[in-house]
């Protein structure tokens, strides 16, 4: 497996009491993603090293945000291009944020993306990905 660790958030009040699992199995990864609820469990991270990881967040109302970076500089967001140009509110990483509706994907899509990344460290090519616009560094 390409992924070396699995980070799982578990918010209790304003404290993250999550776990870090070394050498996770696909079953552990799948379970962690399926437990995302947008309330106490809002983010799962599949890590290969400090610069290469996939994050899956959200979970409330069956909406998930998935992004990947291979260098901690450029980020690729999983998108559903069929979605309208609208804004959705989702809790990711313990904080509510506004996300483009096209970034909110269903669980099956998030799991397919995670399975491919966990196994090979690659983006699932049957899915749609958009690179985030670069942030200006001052």
Sequence of strands across the biggest β-sheet: 4-1-5-6-7-8-11
Report the portion of residues in β strands.
35-45%
The total tally of domains equals 1
Helical content band: 10-25%
Uncertain segments are: none
How far the N terminus sits from the C terminus, by CA atoms, comes to 38 Å
Shape: globular
Main sheet makeup: 7 strands, antiparallel
Instruction: Give the helix tally.
Output: 2
Overall pLDDT confidence? 94
What descriptors fit this protein?
138 residues, seven-stranded antiparallel β-sheet, two-stranded antiparallel ribbon, globular
Quick synopsis:
This protein is an alpha+beta fold and about 140 residues long. Helix content is about 15%, strand content about 35%.
Structure overview:
With 138 residues, the protein is α+β, with helices and mostly antiparallel strands. The protein has one domain. It has 2 helices and 11 strands. The protein has helices at 26-34, 107-120; strands spanning 5-8, 11-12, 15-16, 19-22, 43-47, 53-58, 64-69, 75-79, 87-92, 95-100, 128-131. A 7-stranded antiparallel β-sheet has the order 4-1-5-6-7-8-11, with helices on one face. Helix 1 packs antiparallel against helix 2. The longest helix is centred in the last third of the chain and has 14 residues, at 107-120.
